[in-house]
Amino acid sequence: MYRDTQGFTLNLGDDIIMMRSLWSAASGMKAQQTNMDVVAHNIANVNTYGGKKIRAEFQDLLYQTLRDAGGTSGNGTQYPQGLQVGLGVRVSATHRVFTQGPLQTTDNPSDVGIQGDGFFQIQLPDGTTAYTRDGSFKLDSDRRLVTSDGFLLVPNITLDENAPIDSLVISSDGRVSDTPAGGQQTEIGQITLVRFVNPEGLYAYGKNLFLETAASGAPIESEPGADGAGVLSQNTLEMSSVQIVEEMVNMIVAQRAYESNSKAVTTSDSMLEIANQLKR
Prior knowledge:
- The protein is an alpha+beta fold.
- It has helices spanning 13-17, 20-44, 244-276; strands at 2-3, 9-10, 53-60, 63-67, 83-86, 89-97, 103-105, 112-115, 120-123, 129-132, 138-139, 145-146, 152-154, 169-170, 175-178, 186-190, 193-195, 203-206, 209-211, 220-222, 231-234, 236-238.
- Helix 2 (20-44) packs antiparallel against helix 3.
- The longest helix is centred in the last third of the chain and has 33 residues, at 244-276.
């Protein structure tokens, strides 16, 4: 409360003791810090097979309403606009963008890229089914196709014990064949793909794997090239969809936004300092 020599009273209240701008700017700094974490994650996964870009999304926080729009003023007229002061920002979600990554030729017969929608099915050690776009499969000691961590591809594909890895043939529609030494080409299995109504709702498990959630919906299994699923491309791998130049620009934007919010904190502090120096 401040009273001047003419007897007029000015209620400084919370506007001086606790300026809204301090907390609004602080929320902006926290949001940009999270944004920078997301950008750094994208850059770190620029060479991850089947990696997908993540985008931070923001929402404004609650507003302090000082006057409602449409309210009646003292002279009986109506306010055409309200008077609201925002209280900052928060990160509302991290959105994974499932755009097609470029296919790179590897000349490895057990490498399989997906061109279009769909995920490979992978069986985890506890029996849970996970999903991935990473088709860099290997052979285990039982000559089964597995991931780099030894997780089984589902449906299981097992090569004949006398068939060299170079004889492995995977067609665009997922049919798998091999040729035993001195024998004829034989079909040994069928690779299927699954799609989701909302793939952005999948849970990122790590190891290039995703898990089903209530938000993603149930998996829709089909053969490659059927019912909207993509097709397979042997001897290729899908690279990350992260564009390093775009992420560098996002990094600069996040840094400048963080810097601007820190300037708002400094300016608010200077205003409080001036207020504290007022003489009665």
